[in-house]
Hints:
- Helices cover 10% and strands 60% of the residues.
- The protein is mostly beta strands.
- It has one domain: Beta Barrel (Elongation Factor Tu (Ef-tu), domain 3), CATH 2.40.30.
- A five-stranded antiparallel sheet has the order 3-2-1-9-10, with no helix packed on it. Strands 4-7-12-11-8 form a five-stranded antiparallel sheet, with helices on one face. Strands 5-6 form a two-stranded antiparallel ribbon.
- The radius of gyration is 19 Å and the shape is elongated.
Amino acid sequence: xxxxxxxxxxxxxxxxxxxxxxxxxxxEGRWAKxxxxxxxxxxxxxxxxxxxxxxxxxFDVSYGLNPREELDKLVxxxxxxxxxxxTVGGKGVGVDLWSISSFEQHWDRVDNRGNILYATANLTLxxxxx
Length: 130
């Protein structure tokens, strides 16, 4: 097992490949600007912002997956606002949970019966603090 996001498990076996590419994490602080007459504004650090993670998943029927079912699982997680742990390499990523803030799917290859043969999903996760 490579890792997981909730019940979506990232694996690469002889029968099934469900992994991610282009993994990127970003963070930024929260700052307030206070106006001062005749001078530049004064900056004040309020605290850390919420981290964001983006990555792409590929679902290929030739790697033991049903792309439509895989995409449907992600749709449910996004629409229900599910907050879940994200792990990679047996270690948790971040300090708490993550939720899908953005989800874009591409049906790259569809057969003559409407079955998705190959699809990609671009996900953006945002830290979910309790």
